[in-house]
Design brief:
41% of the residues lie in helices and 19% in strands. The protein has 653 residues and is of the alpha/beta class. A hairpin with a 2-residue loop joins strand 23 and strand 24 (618-620).
C-alpha cells in the first residue's frame, strides 16, 4: 500500500458557461488531472475540484438571444463543458456549479459579513465595461481602446454598486508575496502583478451590479446581484464545506488552504490579488500557490470563433484518440511561454513519440516473448553489464520525473519518462534478441533480455499513467501486470518471473497519414465556422413597370485593369472590356472589400447606360453590380461575378 503523504487540494479556474470550451480551455483541466494523478501516485490524499462559473450579464444576454431562461441556458452549457472534461478522462473529485443552491446561500452570507465589518460599501460607478470579461476598466487601462484582457470592445457604464476596500489589505498582500516567493508562479506572473497593479496602488473593486438580474441577489438589497468575481472565486471554499458565520465541515478544515490554484495567465489578477484579499477579509489562510499557465495557441494565434481557428477536444479526439491529445497538450506546452497546436504537429508527435517510441517498444517486446517463449517471461539470471546500465537508468527516472512535477514542469517530466522508453529501445539494439534466438545456448540470455524489457516497461508505464491513463492501463493488461506503487518505482526486477503476456498484442498507436489528417481537419474547421449574423436590406415595396425595367442595360464586362484612385480610401478605377471594342472606365467605392490586383481578369456585371458622373476628377461611365448586406453589424459587399466563359458585352435579360 502506498505511503500517505497527507492531503493535496488542487483546483482549476471554473469554466464560464458562455459556450463550448475549445482545446485551449480544456488544456488546463488535463494539466490539472496529470498533476492530481501524479500526486496520488506519490501517495498524497488528493482532492481535485473543478466546475463552472454561471452567473453574469454575458450569460443573461446569451440566454435571451437563445430564447430560453438563463438557468436553462447555463444548464445546457455546463453539461457540454462537463462532457468535454469527461471525454479527456479527467479524474476530478468534485464538479461545482455556482448555481448550486448551497453555494448561492454561502455567497450571500459572505457578502453580508464583509459588509457588516466595513469592507464593502455602497457607491456608484462610472467606467468602461467589458461584457465578455465582466470587468470595468479605466481609459488608461485599455489597449488600443479595447479590453486589455480579451481585446474586445468596451462600452461606458454607470450604475449604483457596492465596492470592496481593496486598498485596506494591499500592503498585507504585498508583504505576503514578498515573504512567500512560491506563492505566484511563474515568477514573470508575480512581477506583472506587483509592478502593474499592487505597487501603483489597488483601486476599490466593484462587487455588485444592478444593470442585470442573472446573479446571486444581495439579500439585504435585492436590486443588487453579487458581481461575478466574488461569486466565482469563493467556490474554492464553498465546494469543500465552508460555512460563513458557522461551523465549517470537517472536509474544509482538512483541505484548506488549497495547495495549488491552477489557472490561465489571463485571469491571474483575479486569483492573486482579489481572491487573496477576500480571504484575508474572511480571516482565512491564503492558498499555498497560484500557477498561471500559458496559452495554447492554434497555428500561432489565440483561438477565436471569429477568426475561424477554434478547435475542440472532441474534434481532435475523433481523429487521434484521447491519449495522443493528452500527450500533445502536456508535452508541447512550455512552462512559461505560450504553446502552439497544429494538426500537423499532433500527427507528427503521434507518429514519432507515441507510435515509434512507445507503441513499437511494447508491441515488439510482447511479440518477441510470444515468438520465442510462448509468451512466458522468465528471469533466467543470464546478466551482462549492459543490463546494469539499463536498470540504473530506469531506477533513476522516478526521482527525476518527480522533481520536474514538483515545480509543475509537466512537459519536462514526460520527457524524462519517454527517455526511459527510448533507453529500452536502445537496449534492444544493444542486445539484438533476434540474433540471440539463433543460438540455443543463448536462450537463457534471450529470456533475461526480454524479462528486463517487460520489467522496465512496467516501471515506465507506472510513471506515465498520470499523463496517459488509458494507454498505460492497456499496457498493463497486455503485460499481465499491475501498476507499481511509488516506493517500488526506483527498483527493477519486480515483474513476476514466469508470468505470461498476452498472446494477442494490440497496436497502441496507429501511424497516421498527414494528408488524411489534414482532410479531416478541414472538415472540422468548416463544421465549426460560426454562422454569420447576416442582415439584409428590406425589399422595396414600390413597384416599377416592365418597360421601365427594360430601359436598364446590364452587360457582362471583363476587367482589363484595376487600380486604387489616388487620394481616395474607397475608390477603385476599372478599365473594362464591354464588347464594343472601346475600353469603358467605371469607378467603384469597394476598396474596403477588394484589393485591385485580385479583380483583374474577372467577369463582372455592369449597368452601362447610366449617365457619366465625375468622381475625384475622373469620369465613371456606368456602375458595377454588387450584393450588400450586414454581417455582425458590419457592412459586407460582394461583387457579382459570373462565369468567365460569358463573352464581354453579353446582355442580361
Amino acid at each position: 500500500m502506498a505511503e500517505n503523504k497527507g492531503k493535496y487540494y488542487l483546483t482549476t479556474a471554473i469554466a464560464y458557461t458562455s459556450g463550448k470550451p475549445h482545446i485551449g480551455n480544456v488544456y488546463e483541466i488535463v494539466l490539472a488531472d496529470a498533476i492530481a494523478r501524479f500526486k496520488r501516485l506519490e501517495g498524497y490524499d488528493v482532492w481535485f475540484q473543478t466546475g463552472t462559473d454561471e452567473h453574469g450579464q454575458k450569460n443573461e444576454l446569451k440566454a435571451a438571444a437563445a430564447g430560453v431562461s438563463p438557468k436553462e441556458y447555463v444548464d445546457k452549457i455546463a453539461g457540454i463543458i462537463k462532457g468535454q472534461f469527461d471525454l479527456m478522462n479527467v479524474s476530478y473529485d468534485y464538479f461545482i456549479r455556482t448555481t448550486d443552491e448551497y453555494h448561492e446561500k454561502e455567497i450571500q452570507k459572505v457578502f453580508k459579513k464583509l459588509y457588516d465589518q466595513g469592507d464593502i460599501y455602497k457607491s456608484s460607478y462610472e467606467g468602461l465595461y467589458c461584457t465578455d470579461c465582466e470587468s470595468f476598466f479605466t481609459e488608461s487601462q485599455l489597449v488600443d481602446g479595447k479590453c486589455p484582457d480579451c481585446g474586445r470592445e468596451v462600452h461606458p457604464a454607470q450604475e449604483e454598486a457596492y465596492f470592496f476596500k481593496m486598498s485596506k489589505y494591499a500592503q498585507r498582500l504585498i508583504d505576503h508575496i514578498n515573504s512567500h516567493p512560491e506563492f505566484i508562479q511563474p515568477v514573470s506572473r508575480k512581477n506583472e502583478m506587483m509592478n502593474n497593479f499592487l505597487l501603483p496602488g489597488l483601486q476599490d473593486l466593484c462587487v455588485s451590479r444592478t444593470s442585470f438580474t442573472w446573479g446571486i441577489p444581495v439579500d439585504f438589497d435585492p436590486k443588487h446581484v453579487v458581481y461575478v468575481w466574488l461569486d466565482a472565486l469563493t467556490n474554492y471554499i464553498t465546494g469543500i464545506g465552508y460555512h460563513c458565520g458557522g461551523e465549517s465541515e470537517e472536509k474544509f478544515h482538512k483541505l484548506w488552504p488549497a495547495d495549488l490554484h491552477l489557472i490561465g495567465k489571463d485571469i491571474i489578477r483575479f486569483h492573486t490579488l482579489y481572491w487573496p484579499i477576500f480571504l484575508m477579509a474572511l480571516d482565512l489562510p491564503l492558498p499555498k500557490q497560484v500557477f498561471g499557465h500559458p496559452w495554447l495557441l492554434m497555428n500561432g494565434g489565440k483561438m477565436s470563433k471569429s477568426k475561424g481557428n477554434t478547435i475542440y477536444a472532441d474534434d481532435l479526439v475523433d481523429v487521434f484518440g484521447v491519449d495522443p491529445i493528452r500527450y500533445f497538450v502536456l508535452h508541447e506546452m512550455p512552462y512559461d511561454n505560450d504553446g502552439n497546436l497544429t494538426w500537423e504537429l499532433v500527427c507528427e508527435r503521434n507518429n514519432s513519440d507515441l507510435a515509434n517510441v512507445l507503441g513499437n517498444l511494447v508491441n515488439r517486446t510482447i511479440s518477441m516473448s510470444n515468438k520465442y517463449f510462448g509468451g512466458v517471461v522468465t528471469d533466467a539470471g543470464a546478466t551482462e553489464p549492459v543490463d546494469d546500465d539499463l536498470k540504473g537508468f530506469v531506477s533513476a527516472c522516478r526521482d527525476k520525473a518527480a522533481a520536474k512535477m514538483e515545480s509543475l514542469r509537466a512537459a519536462d517530466a514526460i520527457t524524462e519518462i519517454m527517455s526511459l522508453f527510448k533507453r529500452c529501445n536502445k537496449y534492444i539494439d544493444e542486445t539484438m534478441p533476434w540474433a540471440l534466438a539463433k543460438d540455443e545456448a543463448k536462450l537463457p540470455r534471450l529470456q533475461t533480455v526480454l524479462y528486463n524489457l517487460v520489467d522496465c516497461i512496467c516501471v515506465g508505464a507506472s510513471l506515465l499513467q498520470p499523463f496517459l491513463p488509458g494507454t498505460c492501463e492497456n499496457i498493463f493488461r497486455q503485460l499481465n501486470a499491475q501498476p507499481r506503487v511509488w516506493a517500488d518505482l526506483d527498483k527493477t526486477g519486480l515483474y513476476p518471473s514466469g508470468n505470461k503476456v498476452t498472446d494477442k498484442p494490440e497496436i497502441l498507436f496507429a501511424r497516421l497519414d498527414e494528408n488524411e489528417v489534414l482532410e479531416k481537419a478541414e472538415e472540422k474547421r468548416l463544421a465549426n465556422m460560426p454562422v454569420p449574423e447576416i442582415e439584409v436590406e428590406p425589399q422595396l415595396t414600390e413597384q416599377v413597370d416592365f418597360d421601365t425595367f427594360c430601359k436598364s442595360d446590364f452587360r457582362a464586362v471583363k476587367v482589363k485593369a484595376c487600380e486604387a484612385v489616388k487620394k481616395s480610401d474607397k475608390l477603385l478605377r476599372f478599365t473594362l472590356d464591354d464588347g464594343t471594342g472601346t475600353d469603358r472606365q467605371i469607378l467603384s467605392g469597394i476598396h474596403k472589400w477588394y484589393e485591385p490586383e485580385t479583380l483583374i481578369g474577372k467577369t463582372l456585371i455592369a449597368i452601362v447606360n447610366l449617365p457619366p458622373r465625375k468622381m475625384m476628377g475622373l469620369e465613371s461611365c456606368g456602375m458595377l453590380i454588387s450584393a450588400v448586406h450586414k454581417e455582425k453589424g458590419e457592412e459586407a459587399l460582394n461583387l457579382l461575378m459570373v462565369d468567365d466563359s460569358i463573352p464581354a458585352g453579353a446582355k442580361l435579360c
